[in-house]
Amino acid sequence: MQRISEARDELAAVDERLVGVVDLKCFGGYSFIEIAAMMSVSERTIQRDWEKARLFALKPVPRRQLRDRDLNRGRLQQLRDSRETLSVR
User: Fold this and answer.
1) Helix, strand or coil for residue 66?
2) Where do the H-state alpha helices sit in 1-89?
3) CA–CA distance, 73 with 31 (Å, rounded to integer)
4) Residue 10 maps to which CATH number?
5) Tell me, what's the pLDDT at 23?
6) Is 28 helix (H, G, I), strand (E, B) or coil?
7) Which pLDDT score is estimated for 56?
8) DSSP 8-class letter at 24
């Protein structure tokens, strides 16, 4: 349980909204569209936030890179591009 708390704190340092999305999705059982309505953003924004949080949990990244949103966006785009390349084959 302590590791979950630490992970949430680290994620909050990157983006507080990501923690809210994870809490509502995992612990609240809400759908992306319900979370989007609660947070007054688009469903696609919540899906992107979920993907960022998931990637954060799966692969440790140096904190200085996480704080730089442009690097994060570039990294996410690279992952999406590589996924699309794999699905085309």
Assistant:
1) helix
2) 2-14, 16-22, 32-39, 43-58, 63-67, 69-88
3) 24
4) 1.10.10
5) 93
6) coil
7) 84
8) I
- Host domain of residue 31: 2-88
Closest CA to 7 of 47, 61, 75: 61
- pLDDT, averaged in runs of 10, over the chain (89 residues): 78 90 93 97 96 81 53 65 59
- Total domains present in the chain: 1
- Three-state DSSP state, 10: helix
| Whole-angstrom distance, CA of residue 80 vs CA of residue 89 | 15
Query: Within 10 Å of residue 11's Cβ, how many Cβ atoms?
Result: 20
Rounded to whole angstroms, what are the CA distances from 56 to 11, 38, 69?
8, 23, 13
